[in-house]
């Protein structure tokens, strides 16, 4: 990926399409709105109303991982090609940023996969949902995913270096051949896109079938507890979050991965002739891929009334409603109302004066 892009950077001056200008405006807009949306998603999913569900833990971790994806994209692509700021010319940044891009992208995709599995188990009738669909299980699973994919992509930390020209390139010919012909062409596509795609697709089909069968049964249950209805409503909306984000993942991630698979198989002569078009295509497809990580907050806001309500409470647009328990306690507290007239106060004062001796150093105060 990076060798072709670095080598084609020299021919951008002859391109009719200004890649730098495109990234400077379109790329900056995606990053700014994406970072803002993900930070807001973190705040909303951290609220008590939503963080009680196991699926919300996955969406919370997904927002954190998407922030890292966008930060890696900003340093590796936006600053380098849009603003000509070469932070990857430093050896440590070269290794860490490319590792961050690969690891965080894998983590985001598999967190979405875990959310699909969580929803799939929840709508099933098996007892395993009581063990898997829990907050503690979700937190442990998120930690395992982060550790596993950090280890899987750790070879990047030793496989990249900065050459004499200041370009971040592959270390040697052996690793370069493995990375270009196998890892970036087959292994990365299978583990990053195809495997999550298949799992998410199967889980979504199962969820849709289950919900379709339960429509009439759910509508027939008129009398049910309010707390149970709220719990089912949260689960239903979290499922819609999953379905919408899964569709975005499939539509926005596949084109970039297909391009990464095809490009290494192009002949050297073809790449030299059409280097400008190849770079332009790769830049646009990578930006489309980043939209997947930048748009989740806006999808949640459009598809989830509960998410919108919590977001409104977060920004103080909706006043906090008193809890039912506090309202009942307030009603049960006795209230005392005193209506003291001036004549009644005078009579009391006279009666007190008839029984209590006067003293020049004592004073009585009655406050109501």
From TrEMBL:
<feature type="transmembrane region" description="Helical">
    <location>
        <begin position="21"/>
        <end position="45"/>
    </location>
</feature>
<feature type="transmembrane region" description="Helical">
    <location>
        <begin position="57"/>
        <end position="75"/>
    </location>
</feature>
<feature type="transmembrane region" description="Helical">
    <location>
        <begin position="87"/>
        <end position="104"/>
    </location>
</feature>
<dbReference type="GO" id="GO:0004930">
    <property type="term" value="F:G protein-coupled receptor activity"/>
</dbReference>
<feature type="transmembrane region" description="Helical">
    <location>
        <begin position="238"/>
        <end position="258"/>
    </location>
</feature>
<dbReference type="InterPro" id="IPR017452">
    <property type="entry name" value="GPCR_Rhodpsn_7TM"/>
</dbReference>
<feature type="transmembrane region" description="Helical">
    <location>
        <begin position="140"/>
        <end position="162"/>
    </location>
</feature>
<feature type="transmembrane region" description="Helical">
    <location>
        <begin position="189"/>
        <end position="209"/>
    </location>
</feature>
<keyword id="KW-0472">Membrane</keyword>
<feature type="transmembrane region" description="Helical">
    <location>
        <begin position="270"/>
        <end position="288"/>
    </location>
</feature>
<keyword id="KW-1133">Transmembrane helix</keyword>
<dbReference type="GO" id="GO:0016020">
    <property type="term" value="C:membrane"/>
</dbReference>
<dbReference type="Pfam" id="PF00001">
    <property type="entry name" value="7tm_1"/>
</dbReference>
<feature type="domain" description="G-protein coupled receptors family 1 profile">
    <location>
        <begin position="37"/>
        <end position="300"/>
    </location>
</feature>
<dbReference type="InterPro" id="IPR052954">
    <property type="entry name" value="GPCR-Ligand_Int"/>
</dbReference>
<protein>
    <recommendedName>
        <fullName>G-protein coupled receptors family 1 profile domain-containing protein</fullName>
    </recommendedName>
</protein>
<dbReference type="InterPro" id="IPR000276">
    <property type="entry name" value="GPCR_Rhodpsn"/>
</dbReference>
<keyword id="KW-0812">Transmembrane</keyword>
